[in-house]
Amino acid sequence: MDLLLTDYEWHCGDSTPWRHHLQALHEEVAQADMAAVQQSAADSPAKAAAPPADSSRLTGIRPSGGAPADPAREASLPQPTRAAENRPSPSPASADRIGRRASAALAALAFGAAAPTVPSTAPSPQAQRPAIPELPRHMVEQARHAARRLRALRADGRSGEAHALLAAAAAASPEDVVALIDALQESGQDMEIPDLLWELASLCPGEQARTSAALKTHGRTAHAGHSLRLAAGLPAAAVAELAGELFRSGHVDLGTELLKAVLITRPRADAVAIVQAKPSLTGQLIATAQNVSADCHRSLLFMLRTDGDLAGR
């Protein structure tokens, strides 16, 4: 009964009324069973003295005091005990599925509702995730060499040269940046990655957009978002150009991440300045503000109307 009620709570919610109802039914059934046992004990002497006439036909066992049963007829009767012994036991997985389906069906009978469908096993997120392209072998080796060089510079206290190495790495091709981040994590130098992303945020908008897209393509979406949140502090014209490049290249989620960072971390006047620099971003900026909060959406609309960019809407 507890399993039945647990399944009901999982599908329908609170089961307290039905728990009391089923408890009462359980007590009534127990009392009925006890009465049946007592009645059977009282009737057993009479049944032993006068067994039913067709008991041999049903069981194949000779009744007490009756005529011997036909052996050929007994051999032809079904043997439920042997069939049960030869039946293979279900596997644990199939037994669990059968138990869940039986519980759902019993819940439907008890509560007068349609039997809920047992959810099927959904494909794993890994099966739906697009394949991550591999980097060229020589690029991976160069990145590992740079990571070893960076560790040696930090160990010798040559922080200036280490900073110059990261700045040069950020200005390399987008795939080189991805390879260096992989190499830094592989060598346990995760603390160097924020400095690399800071240097990436200082590049021109076109290079930032291409590198952010490469990070996303190679499964580094979190690092791409970190870089864009750093870029949100750039001048409004640079942010507008970067956002426009991201939207133009089809990376809507990255462009939205950049505009969201601007709305969260900067005054509304700076968001208006971005729209002034690139009016085509007005729609995306308003939609992003609506997803941030109602207050953010309302204050942005007020600032835009005051500035006259939404005149006539």
Please state roughly what percent of the residues sit in beta strands, choosing from under 5%, 5-15%, 15-25%, 25-35%, 35-45% or over 45%.
Answer: under 5%
Count of extended strands: 0
Main sheet summary: none
Structural class: mainly alpha
What's the number of helices?
18
Unreliable segments of 5+ consecutive residues:
54-66, 108-116, 309-313
SSE run: HHHHHHHHHHHHHHHHHH
Shape: flat
Measured on Cα atoms, how large is the radius of gyration? 38 Å
- Average pLDDT level: 75
**First-last Cα distance:** 61 Å
Description:
The chain is 72% helix and 0% strand. By secondary structure, it is mostly helical. Among the domains are: 135-202, no CATH class; 206-313, no CATH class. Helix 17 (282-292) packs antiparallel against helix 18 (294-307). The longest helix has 34 residues, at 16-49. The model is unreliable at 54-66, 108-116 and 309-313 (pLDDT under 50).
Question: What is shown here, in short?
Answer:
Among the domains are: 135-202, no CATH class; 206-313, no CATH class. 72% of the residues lie in helices and 0% in strands.
Structural topology:
Layout: H1 2-12, H2 16-49, H3 55-59, H4 71-76, H5 80-86, H6 92-111, H7 125-128, H8 137-155, H9 159-170, H10 174-186, H11 193-201, H12 205-217, H13 221-231, H14 236-248, H15 252-265, H16 268-277, H17 282-292, H18 294-307
Helix pairs in contact: 1-6, 8-9, 8-10, 9-11, 10-12, 11-13, 12-13, 12-14, 13-15, 14-15, 14-16, 15-17, 16-18, 17-18
